[in-house]
Specification:
Helices cover about 85% and strands about 0% of the residues. By secondary structure, it is an all-alpha fold.
């Protein structure tokens, strides 16, 4: 990966993290706005706020866990077993995010708080977010192959040094 591409990726990650921190800071304002809910929908306030905060946290986890392998690429250590930890956390974060969107759909489904189409759209978002996890899992496979080849090459190098 070239230096300009790395710098661009890091810039995007910084903007995403800063944006998520800003949104986290604005969540209390959302809570104040939700005080204006009609009394029959007041029960939605806490679940929506909790789901929002947890959703932001999952996004921050993904950003941090993408930052670490980018750093490993720069250092030339990405083809190690340590990289798997971050890939697995990203997969788990996407699954958690999908579950959070589904929980939001479940919370909003009963009653007349939102139109049924909104709940259906949320279920579509669940499928889209959940679909990212297997993509990351598939992209993990070349990393696993590269790590296995790197380990095998180190073993063969050690054997060759013994012979010489």
């Amino acid at each position: 990966m070239g230096k300009p591409a790395m710098a661009a990726l890091r810039g995007v990650l910084v903007v995403l993290l800063a944006g998520s921190l800003f949104v986290q800071a604005v969540v209390p304002l959302l809570a104040v706005d939700m005080n204006g809910f009609r009394p029959e929908y007041a029960y939605l306030r806490t679940p929506i706020l909790v789901i929002t905060i947890l959703g932001i946290v999952t996004a921050q986890v993904v950003v941090v866990c993408v930052w670490r392998p980018v750093t490993m690429v720069r250092r030339g250590t990405v083809f190690s077993t340590a990289a798997f930890r971050y890939v697995h956390i990203v997969i788990g974060a996407f699954v958690a995010a999908a579950l959070l969107v589904f929980a939001l759909a479940v919370v909003l489904a009963p009653g007349e708080a939102v139109a049924p189409g909104v709940v259906l759209l949320l279920c579509g978002v669940v499928m889209a977010v959940l679909g990212v996890a297997p993509v990351v899992l598939v992209l993990r496979m070349p990393l696993a192959q590269a790590v296995a080849r790197d380990i095998e090459a180190a073993r063969m190098q050690a054997e060759l040094e013994e012979v010489i």
